[in-house]
Amino acid sequence: LLRRLWQEKMTLFFRALEISLPDMLSRSSRFKQLLQLWQCITSNVNRCQSTGYGAPPNFPAPMSRMAAEPFLNGTSSIYIEEMFESWKNDPKSVHKSWDAFFRSVEAGMQPGDAYYPPPSLSALSHHVASIDTKTISDHAKVQQLIKSYQTRGHHIADLDPLGINKADLDDTVAPELELSTYNLSEKDLNREFLLPNTTYIGGDRSVLTLGEILERLKKIYCHHIGVEYMHLSNREQYLWIRKHFETPSIMELTPDEQKRLFKRLIQFLAKKWPAEKRFGLEGCEVLIPAMKQVIDCAAALGVDTFVIGMPHRGRLNILANVCRQELEAIFCQFSTLEPEDEGSGDVKYHLGVCIERLNSASGKPIKLSVVANPSHLEAVDPVVQGKTRAEQFYRNDTRGDKVMSILLHGDAAFSGQGIVYETFDISGLPAYTCHGSVHFIVNNQIGFTTDPRFSRSSPYCTDVAKVVNAPIFHVNADDPEAVMHVCTVASQWRNKFKKDVVIDLVCYRRHGHNEQDEPSFTQPLMYQKIAKALPVMDKYAQKLINAGVVTQEYVQAEMDHYGEIMETAYSNSQKEMFLRNRDWIDSPWKTFFPSDMDLKLKSTGVSIDVLEHIGNIFSAVPKNFRLHSGLERVLRGRAQMVQSRTSDWALAEAFAFGSLLGQGFHVRLSGQDVERGTFSHRHHVLHDQNVDKNTAQPLNELWPGKQAQYTVCNSSLSEFGVLGFEVGFSLSNPNTLVIWEAQFGDFSNNAQCIFDQFIASGQAKWIRQSGIVCLLPHGYEGMGPEHSSARLERFLQLCNDDEERMRAPGPEFEGGQLMDSNMIVANCTTPANFFHLLRRQMLLPFRKPLIVMTPKSLLRHPEARSPFDDYLENTRFKRLIPEDGPASENPEQVKRLVFCSGKLYYELKKERNNKKLDSDVAICRIEQLSPFPYDLVKEQAEKFKNAQLIWAQEEHKNMGAWLYVHPRMLTALNNGRSVKYAGRAPSASTATGNKYQHMREQNKVIADTLEVTMPGVNHYKMVKAKFRYCLFQLIFDPSVDLPNSSVTSSTIYGAVIAAIKSVFGEYGLGQCKHLLKVKVFEDELGIVVIRVLDAHLQTLITSTPFVRQISRIPAILKCLFIGGSIRACAKATLNYHRNNLIKDLPKASSLDSTIIMNTSS
């Protein structure tokens, strides 16, 4: 009876083991259940032997008839119960043997009789005694071995065509890939093991020998493909990849596919110009069929537009063989021909192109756009992504089903250039995602002359891609069929998951960095091997011949045919007399430019109805929306301005955006903190204070269903990547106002490469226009060297206008200047002029980049306001705002004519009024610095013909606009008059970090501007800073017990500082923080006196109502008095308490109660 019981339980156990291993052993919890079941059986038998009873021991009360089975304990019964419940819902959800078992139990069979072992395992009953825990352990070890190959197999893959290096720079073999790690050996190779459901290597077989398992794993993971995908956190994604590599025979090509692959490997440029500097693909010829494979697969899945970015290596091959640019146009680039049209042009391996052609695989038309780029490696990446996003936006392709990007990289650049990470970082952000890109890395295992061991710290050059959970496929570039499979999987991955994927083509570079470079100086052994290596086309041709797929005659015929096509095109190119730069436009706007362009600029004003409509919507609180109390005040202020028909900077910007949206122009504003604005002035996205993620965008509700879309999006903390993205966005469609705003203008130099290589010179090099607008906060307010200057001088230096040539006057003077310029630089002083500048950007018949030095302090300056009349029809942008005060009435009597730009105007005007010099000094504001307003400067100089000319600026002499405007002013004056400089002295740093030093320098600038040449007037004296003292009463929540000494001057100061920051941002805080101080705190009376500069008094008074707690104690600050000294505050305190005492006396019944009431108050 005991033997029978043992056999019955062991047979059932092994049946459960067979059913469950593929699913259970890979999961620790299920494996523990099996072990518990095994322990249960052993324990029961031992108990039967020790007690002498043949019957099984008692079990807990059964939950069903299933629990009456004698082999079940509490743990396993729960598991069987779950399986039984699943069977009742769907009999097919369990194994057939369990189905039969459950049916027998339901039919009424007694426990122990319902199970019948399957024929395949009938022999087990005769060998049960020989089975032990080692069998289970070995199954688990084999499954761990399979997982190790899936995780680490790529480390020992045969990836280097030269056989020199490991792609991960590590020649060791991971212990996890050794049999000995699992106590297995060659003796176990013929043993059969069950395969888990986490692998597909078995195909239709569920059992393989250990030898077969190893052979298949090595072929999949350690041959010519190394698959990195186990870092993915999404189970569906890594199982999908596993299936597309592990399924048997999935990588095999048909003979027709092999023939097509061979044809795509044929190259020509290397034969015709072997020594020409062209950055050829020799050593990675497989890139051409690889790109074609990705494009073919994507096109078959519905993609019809491809935006491509790549470095110089292989560009001409891509243009000829992938994009099918006219071969004659390519060959002309190798000739010394004069350009026929505009532009300075660029070297042939930087050029872009836009081609529309028929895709042979899908039979549908596709568009290929290769974006032109400089030699600055990887700089084109964000530009490509921005252009891709724009194409998707205009086609309403919200999932990237129609438009995708392909990016090519070099190995050293991919791991070395920070812009690669910046581009990956924004790839998943809602306003920047392109829904996945395919990345190719031409990994020639060397960076110019630098060995990879000295050019990166990571094992692979691709490791940066793991930050976005991108799968990475390393592949030996000398195995074209492996490359084709990887490309197919990559294209399908991008289509299914809309995520990035990286293809690492491990190859070599047959020549040096270019065809004229000698690489053996630094890599002698590598190039000895390269010299002996056969080209991949020869290797593959021989493979196909040996396999009987093609013959030698077929190979030769195909090469001859391709050669004939190339020779014909080459012959035709020799007949060309000129180069046509327009053949290389990567972003053509075919229907934008009018045939008869009118350069007479039109009005940029709008009607009063439009202004009032935008103003009313922009200042209204959305319905059923709980707005922050501080923002309610801001909106009330806007409504008051609309009612009084005036505007500040934020309202003027809204007028510009809103009116353009109403005219059908899409507006996109991007940058760090642009939704609110760095200086808390914009608030284009309102946030509900009670409902998370409930936001409102008033500018998208101006004319619902009739206006264009307004996009405002906070970016990542990046300048280089985000500005590049916005430049790319601006290339796609000229009818979009694309704006990038820097947090502070000083930070824009992080994106200097984009300014230099794409914005300033893009049209000259590549005949493409961009209307990108860059808003760069600029102005000296004592914020230190990184929060003062947007480096105006650098942008002016990039402008192409000739300082010695003034265009002939006429009605098209202004428009002609703009047309001839490469970009526009402006520094506005009024909201209305800023409004007209933005609108003019869209209403011009062409596009130019616009750089604007935007204000900080002028955002809330009481004089920086514009009446509605300055926005109406027949108004326009003013390149120069002339003097309109008393000095203009008697110009002959004016002694000085000051030209300036930006916020300095208001400081000069204030001091001129203080000194009563309004009739002696005229101030003109140059709003557009480039192109320079020669005509208007000349007109003002002639008007004030007796005045001395002065250029005034806040910046240091070697910075700012001085070095740009000085020679141009002389040209405008025909060198007939001199111009004096007034400003800071030359400096290595843009600004001082000391507040006192800043004030001293600023006062000197004003002094030098107004009085430096006035006879009989003393030199302007330094004025001591003027302070205001604010008296506050500190009121606590009476229901809260105050800890002793918890509130101090320091904690009050901290609360005030936090309130200022919350209302005015870091900029407003930085302005007043330095000299703000809590001078008096009397805790018994709750009296606080705070000192602040007079210029920042309004900032303090506006912020203190937002103090809600001090030292985590609910409290408020009530302003009682503002004076010029502490003594005045003391008097105000006495008066305040005296008044309270008089008010409380009638309520008092005795002197004691009066004292108590007065103390409480």
UniProtKB/TrEMBL annotation:
First-tier enzyme category under EC: oxidoreductase
Pfam families reported in the protein's UniProt record: 2-oxogl_dehyd_N, E1_dh, OxoGdeHyase_C, RNase_P_Rpp14, Transket_pyr
Chief site of localization: mitochondrion
GO MF annotation, one: thiamine pyrophosphate binding
Cofactor entry: Mg(2+); thiamine diphosphate
Alphabetical GO biological process terms: glycolytic process; tricarboxylic acid cycle; tRNA 5'-leader removal
Catalysed reaction, written as an equation: N(6)-[(R)-lipoyl]-L-lysyl-[protein] + 2-oxoglutarate + H(+) = N(6)-[(R)-S(8)-succinyldihydrolipoyl]-L-lysyl-[protein] + CO2
Keyword field contains Cell wall biogenesis/degradation: no
Keywords, ordered alphabetically: Calcium, Glycolysis, Isopeptide bond, Magnesium, Metal-binding, Mitochondrion, Nucleus, Oxidoreductase, Thiamine pyrophosphate, Transit peptide, tRNA processing, Ubl conjugation
SUPFAM superfamilies with a match to the protein in the record: Rnp2-like (SSF160350), Thiamin diphosphate-binding fold (THDP-binding) (SSF52518)
Transmembrane segments: none
InterPro entries: 2-oxogl_dehyd_N, 2oxoglutarate_DH_E1, DH_E1, KGD_C_sf, ODO-1/KGD_C, Pop5/Rpp14/Rnp2-like, Rnp2-like_sf, THDP-binding
Locations listed in the record: Mitochondrion; Nucleus
GO cellular component: mitochondrion; nucleus; oxoglutarate dehydrogenase complex; ribonuclease P complex
EC number annotated for this UniProt entry: 1.2.4.2
Function: The 2-oxoglutarate dehydrogenase complex catalyzes the overall conversion of 2-oxoglutarate to succinyl-CoA and CO(2). It contains multiple copies of three enzymatic components: 2-oxoglutarate dehydrogenase (E1), dihydrolipoamide succinyltransferase (E2) and lipoamide dehydrogenase (E3).
Protein family membership: Belongs to the alpha-ketoglutarate dehydrogenase family.
Protein name per UniProt: 2-oxoglutarate dehydrogenase complex component E1
Organism: Trichinella pseudospiralis (Parasitic roundworm)
